[in-house]
Every structure is written in C-alpha cells, then in structure tokens.
Amino acid sequence: MGAPSSLTAGLLPKRNLNLQANSAVGVCISGRNCEEKSHHTLAADEKLGVLLLNTGGPETLNDVQPFLYNLFSDPDVIRLPRLFQFLQRPLAKLVSVFLAPRTKERYAAIGGGSPLRRLTDEQADALRMALEGKNLQADVYVGMRYWYPFLEEAIEQIKRDGTTKLVVLPLFPQFSISTTGSSIRVFRQIFEGDAYLSRLPVSVILSWYQRQGYIRSMADLIEIELAKFAKPEEVMIFFSAHGVPISYVEDAGDPYKDQMEECVYLIMQELKARGNGNDHTLAYQSRVGPLQWLKPYTAEVLVELGRNGVKSLLAVPISFVSEHIETLEEIDMGYKDLALGSGIENWRRVPALGCTPSFIGDLADAVVEALPYAKAQQTLRVTTEESDCP
Ligand SMILES: C=CC1=C(C)c2cc3[nH]c(cc4nc(cc5[nH]c(cc1n2)c(C)c5CCC(=O)O)C(CCC(=O)O)=C4C)c(C)c3C=C
Ligand SMILES: [Fe+2]
After folding, report:
1. Taking the model in full, what pTM does it have?
2. Angle at CA 378, nearest 5°, toward 147 and 166?
C-alpha cells in the first residue's frame, strides 16, 4: 500500500477547515490504513454507488460566463471575510463577465469547450467495469461542482436508484479546500436534513496521491515520454501543479502544498528505483487575480530554466487526472511557446492518466478498501486524532 499519508500528520489543522460538523459520512483516507485489499462482498440486497467528484467545465462557449459565475460564487474559491459575504454573488458576476471574453478565446482554442464531462464519464464507465472485474456491482455517478451534471443532480439520482452504500471519490489526487473541500462541503449540506441520505452509509476518500497504484501509473507515463527524447537522462522533469492562493495554505490550513510536494517526492522515488536519475522541479500554474499564489510560478521557472541552459524538458501535469483547458491550452500552447522561446529546445508533455488501466484499477481498489469505513450519522472528523480510519 502507499506511503504513509501526511493527511493524518496534522495536515488538516483544526483551525479553519470546516469539515468537522455533524455529517452522515465515514472517512477513509485511502492509501494509508485501509490495508485489507480488494476483498469485500456486499449483501444481496445492498446497492453500491460510487460518486466521482470533479469541477465540470463549460461545454460550449455560451456556457463560459455562467460557468465562471458558478465558480466564483463558491465561497471556497473566492474566500471573503464573513462580514463581506453578501458581496460574493455581485463579485462573481463582475469577475465572470470580466474574464469571460479571454476565457472564451482559450476554450475556443481547444475546440470550443471543455472535454471534462466526456472524459469523466469515460472514467466512470471504466471504473464500473474495473469494479465488476472484482465482482463488485456498482453504479458510478459523476457529480460536478460548477457545471453539468451538477453534484446536486447526481445525489438526486443516487436517491432515486435506492443506493444503500456510497463511496465518494474526488478525481483530485491531492486535497484542496478549493476542490475536494468545496464539493464535500456542498455534499454535506445536501445530506444534512435529508431523511434518506442521513441514514445512508457513506465513505469519503479525501485524497489518494500517495497510493502506490497512482504513483506507479504516473511513473509509467513519465518513463514512456522520457524514452522519446534523444538523451532521456538529460531531461528535466517539470511537475506543473495547479496553484491556489498562498493564504489557503498559510491561513486556512489547506494541506494541498504539502501533499503536492510529497506526491512529487514519491513519484521521483519510484522513478529512481527504476533507474532514472533525472533532475526535477515543481512549480504552480493557473494563477487568477491579484493575490499571491503558491510559488514558484510555472511561467517564471520555465524562463529561468531556459536561461540556465536546460535544453530538454518534460512537463508533467500533476493535479489533474484528465485532459482539460489547463493541460490542452495553458501547458500545450502557452507554456510550450514560452519554454521554446526561452531556450528550451526539446519539449514534451506527459498525458493525463485518463482511463489508463493500472490507474483505474487502483481507483477500484481504493473504492473496495473504503467500503468497510462507510458510516451513516457519523461525525466527519478528519484530523489526526479523530479520523475514522484505525
Ligand atoms: C487541483 C485542481 C484545481 C485547483 C486547485 C483549482 C483551484 C482554483 N481554480 C480557480 C479558477 C478557475 N478554475 C477554472 C477551471 C478549472 N479548475 C480546475 C481545477 C482546479 N482548480 C479544473 C479541472 C477546471 C476545469 C477546466 C476545464 O477544462 O473546463 C477556471 C476556468 C478555466 C480557466 O480559466 O483556466 C478558473 C477561472 C481558482 C480561483 C482556484 C483556487 C482558489
Ligand atoms: Fe480551477
């Protein structure tokens, strides 16, 4: 099983991360304690559901502004002091209208919309089949935070289908308040006060970046791309993670940065164990707005590497498991042009994991391992002392 999860090492300080109120879920921090592998049978009358969480993305250019409005209306994306929270929606309107024209151009450059819905549906199908291969019948649902199919719709369907046990699996390897945290908050709000849902045993996988199956799948993809360079040993492996404002980490206790660093460390360890001694670096992309975000910024590091004489670079998107605008446009177009203009001569990018069989198989294992932790009417406690995982 994966390396010890740092999630439990105080990475979710009790300070501000508001995940501790009453909730009808158990927590399985997958890859850490849930060792009993892949052998779980459901009673004949049980109906298992797996809910995949993702952001969603605009499917057409007309969807872009309302998608951005939904995104910036999220108090976990623009975090306002309580006193100013009445400004959230007007601000979301303003920012979404301001950003829409440029964002539309960017979605136009990747074919007129986000592929995220199609790709997530494909992952859901692949996961359902992988579970079937482990003799586990499950309905796999997709719940998007900011666009169709919305999380709320997915939960309605889960109820309509008479689900008797649910595993919640965010498609983000690392936990951030702005991604998994936001979806789980909404999930809990919906569950509270609903008679059926509050009795439904649920297991939430908060992060899974340390799972061996995921780490090995990433290392496989990196090795495949490395082999395409003329001199693989001279390639700089450049991990580019989605950024978040620094205040998330420093003030709100977001474990995202620590998990990201540990994730990169584990992938590099795996590559080293396979005999790859490449240099590597981690930087953060996709900054929006005037705040300071996690540093170093991807654009700045690329320029610096070019200036320092790095000639071959392999970009590895590390916070995403499917292709979307930030891989297809931001990295493949923006950062690639910048790198080539800065002196880097050989550029390649590792594809997102998508439906890579070893990866989907590992997600299926994570689901199976989470099952014993499904609980109803429990307190969702995710700090060191209070995790439900033994
Ligand atoms: C780990 C993944 C992500 C983190 C962390 C994250 C934080 C974050 N994002 C914004 C602003 C935007 N996000 C947008 C789209 C978008 N973001 C993610 C992932 C993370 N976001 C995904 C998967 C998507 C959908 C991509 C698609 O193909 O549609 C957008 C719109 C697109 C763009 O401009 O790039 C914005 C804007 C903030 C402010 C934030 C942290 C606070
Ligand atoms: Fe985002």
Report:
1. 0.90
2. 45
